[in-house]
Every structure is written in structure tokens, then in C-alpha cells.
Amino acid sequence: MRATILAAGGLAVAGAAMTIAAFAGAGHDDAAPDAAVGRPHTAADGLNVWIANGCGSCHTFKPAGATGSLAPDLQQTLKGKNRSYVMQSIVAPDAAAAPGYGTGMMPDDFAKRIAPADLELMTDFILAGVRAP
After folding, report:
1. Distance (Å, rounded) from C-alpha 105 to C-alpha 133?
2. DSSP label at 26?
């Protein structure tokens, strides 16, 4: 039983790492065409993913109008971080905790729950918001 649990945990970590690796190396344009609907992505697309996954219930993030107080303010903790770090923070949240916050608080199954294209949209939205004044 323990070996099964350890193997499942290892697979989950491997899956998260593969997801991060797949997206981290890709160049990205903020107005990349959305193949599914034939239009450029917008900030609203990423915001919709943010909302659908309940991120604002825990995080403060001004661009999303979110004032959650259980988790870090993303504009503060992600300032200066790169795309790979932001994605890892979503799909493998216990890999690095923000100062003043412990691990184990954020759901660790977003790599399974969020489609890769949606993860990209939300990451774009977060990065744009972090860079905004």
C-alpha cells in the first residue's frame, strides 16, 4: 500500500514537472492566436480561468479584483519571477513557499484540473498583472 502511494506521488510530481517543462521553454506572445476559436487571447480569458479555479478566494490580486487573505498577494510575491516559476507555483505549489506562508495550503492537483492551454492563459494573466503598475 505504501509503495502504491509513493508511486502515485512520484507520478504526480513527474506530471507536474513535465507540464512545467513543456510550457517553460515556449516563447509566448501576449496576443497569440487561440487555435480553438481563431482569435487572439485576451486578459479576460486568463481571468476566466482564474475565476473558474477559485484563486481569488485565497489570493489577493488587484488585476482580478481579488482580496483573499489566506494566501500571498500575487503582485507582491511574484514580482520579478519568470513564467516557469509562476507555472510551477500553480501546478507544484509546495516546491517553493512564499515568505511567511507554509506549504500544504494550496491545492496540489491543478496540473490535473487545469488544461494546459488554460494554464497558459492564466499564467499570462498573472504575469501581466504582476508587471502592471
Report:
1. 28
2. S
